[in-house]
Every structure is written in C-alpha cells, then in structure tokens.
Amino acid sequence: MFFLGCFATATAAAAAAEVAAPVPGYVLDNTEVREIHAASLKRDYQLYVALPDSYRASERRYPVVFVVDAGYAFPVARGIASRLHRHAGMEEAIVVGLSYAKGDEGVYSRRRDYTPSVPRNGGYRSDMPGRPAAFGEADAYGRFIATEVFPHVAAHYRADMRRKIFVGHSYGSLLGLQVLLTRPNTFEHYILGSPSLWFDRGVMFDREKAYAAAHGDMPASVFFGIGSRETLAPGKQRSRAEEDADMVADLRDFHGALAAHRYRGLATTLKVFADEDHASVFPLVLTHGLRAYLKQK
Question: Which fold has domain 26-291?
Fold first, then answer.
C-alpha cells in the first residue's frame, strides 16, 4: 500500500506539472519585434518586422510595406506578401507593422493616432476608464512615422527607402489620406481600404479642397479598394454620419474629386470588390494594392 500511495502521489504531481507547464505560442518565421519610443508623442510603440525569405542570403535592398493596425493587419500583410512572391512571382518586400501605443487599448490608440480631427458632432465615449476620448492626432502620428520610424528601419534593415508603401484600412486609411494631403511624398504608394470618409462630417473632403487650392501636384500613386456591401441600408437617407454613410458612394466622390483636380504626379485606381463588406475586404484590397506597385518577374 505504501508503494501504491507513492505511485499515485507521483502520478498526480506529474499530471499537475504537465497542466501547469506553459504552452509555447506560435512564432512567425523571419519576424522581429523592435521597441521604439516616439519622442515627439511621448509614447512607446512596437514595430513588427517580417523579412523576405531571401533576406539573410542576399545583399540587396527591398521595398518596405508599412501597415497600421498591426495586431490584425501585420500577419495578414506578411502572409500575402510572401504568397505573392512564392506563387505569383511578385518581388519580395520587408513588411513593417505599426502597433498601437503600449498601455493603450486598441480602440483608444487608433482613434487618437489615425483620425485627422476632433469630431464636431461628439458623442464618443472613451474605452479607457479615467481617460477622456482622444481624437485628431493623425498629423502628429504621420510625422512620427516619417521622422522616427523611417530612420529606425533604415538603420537596422536593408530597406529601399525610395520605395515605401503605406497600407491602411478604415480609420487607418484616414491616416493615409492625412499624410497624402499634407506630405504626399512621404510614401511612394498608398493602399487605402474602405476609408471612413464620413468621419467628422466628411472633413477629408474639405481638406482635399484646401490642398487643391494651394497645390497643383501630388507625387504619389494610390490604390483605393472597398467592398460593394459597404453601402447605405435600404430606406435610409445618405449623410456624412457613420450610421447613414454610403461608404462606396463617398469613396467614388472622393476619387472623383482627385481626378477632377488633375494633380501632376498622381496616379489613382479605385476598385469595388463584389460581395465583400467592411470586415472581409481588407485582404483583397491589400493583394490588389501590392500588385499595383510591386514588380512581377
């Protein structure tokens, strides 16, 4: 009985140890995480970096894809970029994901960092207790990317900083438009999916008009994509409010305004993806947007 008791105790201890042992997480191949302090914003972020398959064995420089909303979008962008190279002959690229601010909830961080203004209609609640809702820092965040993220990437990787691609979706596309309408040559190519052009009563339409009044050129290429289901529900009257927005019509109007102003150096494409909605369309926008810029063998 003594030996049976010892055996039972040992078995139970082993089972408990097995249960308590941490299960390792899945790690994406050829990826790195770098900490970066945004001195201008007084916040800390992370950069998620995916290197091409050939990076370690080559000496060449690669175009760089910068993607916001990195928690979701980085692994998607990494996978699509890799697959386009392996199976469709597209050139390889470094993918850099820009995280939300450390210590912030995702909604709080993206509302603050990606939106171009403080909404005049108000009505937003903060998702972080004890902190007021924050908006309107897209211009400052765009400067952080250009003046702090770019030098960091250039110093640590063989990046071709003459071929930089911005990728954003929804609020992330508002950030891209803010950069495009203030310092368009920050990136050579913009991939903008389902931009929230209803935000702040259509403030980006006003900013495009202001840009056109002061500039005749816009040196960049832009791929716009959106799902065909991102339209106004039947029976509703269209307005520039989130609940009554027709995002497809808004994007067609914005794209038309860019075309009407005939900016020198600007090349744009707009594609509406059939049977896709706001939640499902991003991988298609990214795939077609990369094809529109990266070279094919």
Answer: Rossmann fold (3.40.50)
